[in-house]
Write a structure and sequence with these properties.
With 415 residues, the protein is mainly α. It contains 19 helices and no strands. The longest helix is centred in the middle third of the chain and has 27 residues, at 209-235.
C-alpha cells in the first residue's frame, strides 16, 4: 500500500549521503615549481586567483572557472557544499539535496576529472550511485515542490557519474552504466513519440511545441551517451565495440555533423593500423564537406595530414598543415593546433631548429598559447636540441608563472 506523500521516510542506507573527501584541497603547483627552481622571491611574484580572492558563492565559482583556476574553484566547491552539510568528512551523513547543491556537485566532479584527480572523483561519486535514490527526486520534498515529479539532478551529472569508472580504468563498469543510461533515454524517446511526457505519465498533444522540444532534447542526450560510449571503448582498447557505437551514432546524428563523425571513423581505424579503411572514411567525410568553406577545408586538411602521418609521409602532412595555417584566423584554436602539429612534423623531417622556432614564436607572441601540449612539445624539442635544455625549460617556467592559471599541467615542463 502506497504511503501518503511526505509520510514515508526511507532508511539511511537508501539515501544519498555524499561528502567532500578530507585532504582533497588543492594548492598551486606552478607556484611550488617556481619556488623549487627559482626561489621563494620569484614565487612571491606569482599572482593567481584563489578561493579566498572571490565571493563565496556561485558568482565567485564562475569567476575562478572562467579564469582557468580550476584548483581554486575546486577548493571553493568544498566551502559551498559545507553550507549544505555535505562538506569535508560529511560522507555518510543525512542531508537535503536541491538543484543548487547537485549543480555544485556536478561542477566539483567535472573539475576533479578535468584535473585528472580520478581517485578522488570516484570516491566522492560513489554515494550518488545511478541517481535513483529517493532523496534526489522532487517527490521526496512535497513541502518544497508540492505535487511536482522528476529528478533534481542535472542530466550532465547523470552522464558524468556513468563515465567516472572508465576514467579510473574500470571500462566495463562504465560501458554497462552507459548502456543502461542509453536504454533509459530511448524509453523516454518512445514515450514522447507516443504522445506522452518523457516519464510516460502525462498525455501531450503530438504536435505540441513542448512535445517537440522534449523529443529534440532526449534525442540529443542519446547522441551524447553514444559519444561517451565511443570514448570509453577506445580508452579500454575495445575498438570493435567503438565501431559498433559509431554505427549507432551514424544512424541518428544530424546531417551537419556527419562529416566529423565519419572523420572519427577514420582516426579510429588509424589507431588500429587499418590505413585502407581510414582512407575510405576520410573520403566519405570529404564528400559531405563544402570545401569552399574555410572551416570545413581545414578539417579536411587535418584528416589528410593524419592519413599521411599514418603512412609515414611527414612531408605531405607538413604541406597540409601549412595550407591550413593560411586559411585559419590568427589566434584561433585551430591555428594553435596546426602550429603544434607543424612543429612535430618538422622534427620527424630532421628540421629540429625550425620546429623549436615555430613553437617558441607561438608561445612568446601570445600568452594565451602558454598551454600544456605546446609546452610539452617545446620542452621535448629542447631536450633533443641542446645541452642547455634545463635552463631553457626554467625560462619557460617563468613565462608559465606570469601567464598561466593554477590548472596548468606542470608535468609538461618536464622538470
Amino acid at each position: 500500500m502506497a504511503a501518503t506523500p511526505g509520510t514515508y521516510y526511507p532508511a539511511k542506507e537508501q539515501l544519498t549521503c555524499p561528502g567532500v573527501c578530507v585532504g582533497s584541497d588543492q594548492g598551486d603547483p606552478v607556484r611550488d615549481l617556481v619556488a623549487k627552481y627559482q626561489g621563494e622571491s620569484e614565487a612571491a611574484k606569482r599572482h593567481s586567483l584563489a578561493a579566498d580572492s572571490v565571493t563565496t558563492d556561485i558568482r565567485g565559482l564562475q569567476q575562478l572557472i572562467s579564469s582557468g583556476n580550476y584548483r581554486a574553484a575546486l577548493n571553493l566547491t568544498s566551502q559551498l557544499l559545507t553550507m549544505y552539510n555535505q562538506g569535508k568528512g560529511k560522507a555518510g551523513q543525512i542531508s537535503k539535496h536541491s538543484q543548487s547543491s547537485l549543480q555544485i556537485w556536478l561542477t566539483r566532479l567535472s573539475l576533479l576529472v578535468k584535473l585528472k584527480l580520478f581517485s578522488i572523483a570516484e570516491a566522492e561519486a560513489e554515494p550518488f550511485g545511478d541517481l535513483e535514490k529517493p532523496d534526489v527526486f522532487l517527490q521526496y520534498y512535497p513541502e518544497l515542490y508540492g505535487g511536482r515529479r522528476g529528478s533534481l539532478a542535472p542530466w550532465r551529472l547523470r552522464l558524468l557519474l556513468a563515465q567516472i569508472p572508465g576514467f579510473c580504468g574500470k571500462h566495463t563498469d562504465s560501458v554497462n552504466r552507459l548502456f543502461k543510461l542509453v536504454e533509459c533515454v530511448r524509453t523516454m524517446i518512445r514515450n514522447v513519440k507516443a504522445g506522452l511526457a518523457a516519464d510516460g505519465t502525462v498525455i501531450l498533444e503530438p504536435d505540441n511545441k513542448e512535445s517537440q522540444e522534449a523529443l529534440e532534447c532526449w534525442e540529443e542526450r542519446e547522441r551524447q551517451v553514444l559519444y561517451a560510449l565511443v570514448n570509453c571503448c577506445i580508452a579500454g582498447k575495445d575498438f570493435e565495440s567503438a565501431v559498433k557505437c559509431l554505427d549507432m551514432l551514424l544512424k541518428i546524428e544530424k546531417e551537419e555533423r556527419k562529416a566529423s563523425l565519419l572523420s572519427c571513423y577514420g582516426r579510429l581505424y588509424l589507431q588500429i593500423g587499418s590505413l585502407t579503411k581510414a582512407e575510405i572514411y576520410f573520403k566519405k567525410a570529404t564528400n559531405l564537406r563544402n570545401l569552399d568553406n574555410a572551416q570545413e577545408k581545414i578539417e579536411d586538411l587535418l584528416d589528410a595530414a593524419a592519413l599521411d602521418i599514418g603512412q609515414g609521409d611527414y612531408a605531405s602532412a607538413l604541406t597540409s598543415y601549412e595550407a591550413g595555417l593560411k586559411l585559419c584566423e590568427a589566434g584561433s584554436k585551430q591555428e594553435k593546433l596546426l602550429k603544434n602539429n607543424e612543429a612535430v612534423c618538422l622534427l620527424y623531417l630532421g628540421r629540429l631548429k625550425e620546429g623549436v622556432q615555430i613553437l617558441e614564436s607561438s608561445v612568446t607572441s601570445d600568452p594565451a598559447n602558454v598551454q600544456g601540449n605546446p609546452m610539452l612539445n617545446l620542452c621535448t624539442l629542447y631536450e633533443l636540441e641542446s645541452s642547455y635544455a634545463l635552463q631553457k625549460k626554467i625560462g619557460m617556467l617563468g613565462m608559465v608563472s606570469l601567464h598561466s592559471p593554477d590548472s596548468f599541467p606542470t608535468h609538461s615542463l618536464k622538470l
